[in-house]
Amino acid sequence: MKILLAFSVALALVLTACSTSSTEPATSSDPSSESSISGANVRKFPYKTRVYNECAQEFVDFEGEIQLVSNSTAVKNGDIHRLFKINIAASGVGRVTGEDYNLKENYSDNLTYDVNTRTFEGETTQRRIRVISKGSSDNFYVKFKYHITLNNDGEEVVEFRDNTSECGG
């Protein structure tokens, strides 16, 4: 099961690296940047990144805000459900065209852990990236979904992956 957890962490790191060539969240000592909503831990940071827009064939430098949300809940059967989300909102300018863009990115990772058998039962990861042109250039969309379910012996019984990208108006 340590392999699944290591895979989850590695996957999150790889996913972040896939669409961004540099990520610079700033650390915040401001207590107002952290809050609790229904037991969730919410933190916000300034965010800078560079994304390659396949539709316009150019890099776009973005600046905005990243919001990190994490929450753990105990389920009636004793399992623990762990939710981790990243929401990004930023604006930027294309390096070649000078086109203005908005970046909207959402990432979620849901893990279910059986406390009785001390094993992970499953994980679902989803990521959506939207690079929206404010002008005439095509918008760029990326969707990624991954799911795995394990039985009580830790054997994989379900695995699903889907990754798509497209250009559109």
What does this structure look like?
With 169 residues, the chain is mainly beta. It has one domain. It contains one helix and eight strands, in the order αββββββββ. It has one helix at 2-19; strands spanning 34-37, 40-53, 58-74, 80-94, 100-114, 119-133, 139-150, 156-168. Strands 1-2-3-4-5-6-7-8 form an eight-stranded antiparallel beta sheet, with helices on one face. A hairpin with a 5-residue loop joins strand 7 (139-150) and strand 8 (156-168). 18% of the residues are buried. Residues 1-38 have low confidence and may be disordered.
Short description:
The protein contains one helix and eight strands; from the N terminus they run H-E-E-E-E-E-E-E-E. The chain has one helix at 2-19, and strands spanning 34-37, 40-53, 58-74, 80-94, 100-114, 119-133, 139-150, 156-168.
What's the arrangement of secondary structure elements?
Elements: H1 2-19, E1 34-37, E2 40-53, E3 58-74, E4 80-94, E5 100-114, E6 119-133, E7 139-150, E8 156-168
Antiparallel strand pairs: 1-2, 2-3, 3-4, 4-5, 5-6, 6-7, 7-8
> What is the H/E order?
HEEEEEEEE
Q: How many DSSP H or I helices?
A: 1
Total beta strand runs: 8
Kindly, what is the distance between the CA atoms of the first and last residues, rounded to a whole number of angstroms? 43 Å
Shape descriptor reads: elongated
Radius of gyration: 18 Å
Walk across the major sheet and give the strand order.
1-2-3-4-5-6-7-8
Strand % is over 45%
Poorly predicted sequence stretches spanning 5 or more consecutive residues: 1-38
Class inferred from helices and paired strands: mainly beta
Mean pLDDT: 78
